[in-house]
Design goal:
It is found in: Cell inner membrane. Keywords: Cell inner membrane, Cell membrane, Membrane, Transmembrane, Transmembrane helix, Transport. Pfam families: DctM. α6 packs across α8 and α26 packs across α27. The longest helix is centred in the middle third of the chain and has 30 residues. The chain has a domain of 69 residues. It is built from 31 helices and no strands. The chain is globular.
């Protein structure tokens, strides 16, 4: 894709440009073009897959292994149709070795994937007699399926996840050769395939179950809700509410990304959709290009932590934690708010420092006019949330949400056209929505099935607890050393136990971010709860808190260089330096980086934990907000006026103390902030030095 011209960078992107940009940075939507006959056939298969899931969501899901096998078979076959083996997709061409425009090896992979995925449901009645004593045909089928899944995931998402899966399989096989505590008796290939293929601990386990039972439906809902105009309504309402204030387009970006992300759950898609409008607007009023890109990227990654969808991870949590969805959504409220609060504070301070204006009245939509024109599009979201809160299953909520989207679609067409044209339009748009929704789910299914391999190895070898023992032992050693070095102080800063937990959290966070640099959030979360969550469990961290911690740091990878894909996509729109945009986006997302440490030490921040205390909640919440504000001011070099070097240093130290969920630390932080505030009080509400660059 050619770089946009100077003029294009300050104008909203066209739909085609948005599509090209998303494909450039997101391999999950890099579909190859298909010749007409194969294209229509594949679209028909996607439509059937969507109809199957829509029907089962409303009228009952089949036996688990059968349901998962059907979903996996369709998905694997279609993955080899839509994703090319190497490089960028090329124009289709048919030939003797390319029936219908598809290479023979792709047909072989597609057929092998479908057959081996359906094999386990086919022998399900005899499965109890084969588990632990697989037949040669079982081992052959399982081996083929593992190879097919590795290749499907490589095509749809790249090398990182397949490499991790191969390393885990190798660990299971070569257990006797592993060093130290990692050593285990090892397993034969027959036993490995038996565990991964024939039991519910591997490929056909919870990960694939959640994708086929919940996630697919919510991807479909998000696509349909966007097509009826709900996403555009969010953007217009955000413009009407926040656009008039200083640095208005940046604040519109934060609010619109929060609202749109609640139904999309994709960082890159959210970045491209809202960024195509907000980034050019931010540049026009004076934000630097890299900063405009960073604002959109940081805001858009917040969509994955925003209820009710949360990038599909909410539905994985209810399966692994065994708690109602309402518990997960409630727990997510305050941390999500903290993230967007942190981004909003920084864009405001940057706007005040640069003296940037808001949008004029002529540039802004009117809120009541916007809502009057688009209120009908909010119906599906209200229906979805109402059914969720009523205690019904998430897939039933998705069924009624999708049904509401289709109803709104028909009503919209009836308003615009005569009955005949309206029905024709509705049928065409329904077909298109169901096809696209299923198409977007292909990569996540392949990844979830392959993550089942990783999880299966963990349960087969017990490596999760071995890693947990290693990490906590290292953290305990560091804690003892630090405690000894601070023994000269007349008071104890942190106990050895607290320091051990702190160092464990830091190591876990680093691993989550590194894993997330090449793996989608859903897959990253699944791996980390198998490997990292037991580490926190050994130190007494509640399961809900541990799961939220690894989830938040997995999401952070989307704005963490060197593989900050959301930031790079935003930089493509802005015409900015990608690495600079990524670094700035990481800084803007500091709330997402700090708050997980706060809610581990003060679980009341998640609202629904055992022993919830309003005192602890208010102390932790207020301290976190104050700390994020002070750290933002230090980074922006602006509070109410420019800051001096020593004031920035004071604010950084004070921010750390304020974020720490401890009353004495908070009070010390307040004392450090006081002299900075006193010097800046005369500038409150003024424009002193605003807009002046140093």
């Amino acid at each position: 894709m050619a770089a946009p011209s100077e003029a294009e960078r300050t104008e909203a992107l066209t739909e085609q440009q948005m599509k090209e940009l998303e494909e450039r940075f997101d391999p999950e939507v890099r579909f190859r073009p298909l010749p007409p006959l194969l294209g229509w056939t594949a679209a028909g298969a996607l439509f059937i897959l969507s109809c199957y899931h829509y029907y089962t969501a409303g009228f009952g899901i089949p036996q688990a292994t059968t349901h998962r096998g059907l979903h996996l078979a369709f998905t694997l076959a279609l993955t080899f149709v839509f994703f090319a083996a190497w490089g960028q997709p090329r124009e289709p061409r048919s030939g003797l070795l390319r029936p219908l425009g598809l290479p023979l090896y792709d047909w072989l992979f597609a057929i092998a994937g479908a057959v081996t995925a359906l094999y386990v449901p086919w022998i399900f009645n005899d499965l109890a007699f084969r588990v632990g004593n697989p037949l040669p045909i079982d081992v052959f089928m399982g081996t083929v399926l593992i190879v097919v899944m590795l290749e499907a995931t490589r095509r749809a998402m790249g090398w990182p996840l397949p490499v991790i899966a191969i390393l885990f399989i190798a660990y299971a096989y070569f257990g006797r050769s592993m060093p130290g505590v990692l050593a285990h008796p090892g397993a034969s290939w027959d036993n490995i395939v038996n565990h991964l293929y024939l039991t519910s601990q591997g490929i056909y386990g919870t990960a694939l179950g959640v994708i086929s039972t919940y996630v697919f439906h919510f991807v479909l809902f998000g696509v349909l809700a966007t097509r009826i105009g709900l996403g555009q309504l969010f953007i217009d309402l955000a413009s009407a509410l926040a656009g008039r204030y200083s640095g208005g387009p940046a604040k519109v970006s934060v609010l619109s990304s929060a609202m749109l992300g609640s139904i999309s759950g994709s960082s890159i898609a959210n970045t491209v959709t809202t960024g195509s409008l907000t980034i050019p607007a931010m540049i026009r009023i004076g934000y630097p290009r890299h900063f405009a890109a960073a604002v959109e990227a940081a805001s858009s990654t917040g969509g994955q932590i925003t209820p009710p969808v949360m990038g599909a991870v909410a539905f994985l949590m209810i399966e692994y934690l065994g708690v109602p969805l309402t518990t997960i959504l409630t727990a997510a409220l305050v941390p999500a708010f903290m993230h967007f609060f942190g981004v909003l504070v920084q864009v405001h301070l940057e706007a005040r420092r640069r003296g940037l204006r808001g949008l004029t009245k002529d540039e802004l939509p009117v809120a009541w006019v916007v809502f009057k024109a688009g209120w009908l599009t909010t119906l599906p979201l209200f229906v979805l949330v109402a059914v969720l809160l009523s205690g019904k299953t998430p897939y039933l909520a998705a069924f009624w949400g999708i049904t509401s989207c289709l109803l709104v679609l028909v009503i919209q067409n009836l308003i615009r056209h005569d009955i005949r044209t309206a029905l024709s339009e509705s049928v065409r748009e329904t077909w298109d929505g169901l096809v696209v929704g299923a198409k977007y789910s292909l990569s996540v299914t392949a990844a979830a099935a392959l993550v089942g391999v990783v999880i299966g190895v963990v349960t087969l070898t017990g490596v999760g607890f071995k890693i947990a023992y290693m990490v906590t032992s290292i953290a305990a050693g560091w804690a003892q050393s630090v405690s000894a070095s601070l023994a000269f102080l007349p008071f104890e800063v942190l106990s050895v136990t607290a320091l051990t937990l702190l160092f464990t959290l830091i190591m876990t966070a680093v691993v989550c971010v590194l894993m997330g640099c090449g793996i989608p959030t859903t897959a990253n979360y699944l791996i980390m709860i198998a490997v990292a969550a037991p580490i926190l469990g050994l130190l007494g961290v509640e399961p809900l808190v541990a799961h939220f911690f690894v989830f938040y740091y997995g999401v952070l990878a989307d704005i963490t260089p060197p593989v900050a894909l959301a930031a790079y996509a935003a930089a493509g729109i802005a015409g900015a330096n990608a690495f600079k945009a990524g670094n700035t986006a990481f800084r803007l997302g500091m709330g997402k980086a700090l708050v997980p440490f706060v809610f581990v030490f003060s679980p009341s921040l998640l609202l629904v934990v055992e022993g919830f205390s309003w005192t602890e909640f208010l102390l932790a919440g207020t301290g976190a907000m104050a700390g994020i504000w002070m750290l933002s001011a230090a980074f922006a070099n602006w509070l109410f006026a420019p800051l001096r070097a020593y004031e920035r240093a004071l604010l950084i130290v004070a921010a750390i103390l304020l974020v720490a969920p401890d009353l004495y630390a908070t009070l010390v932080g307040v004392v450090l902030v006081a002299p900075v505030f006193l010097r800046q009080v005369p500038f409150i509400g003024g424009e002193a030095a605003a807009g002046k660059e140093r």
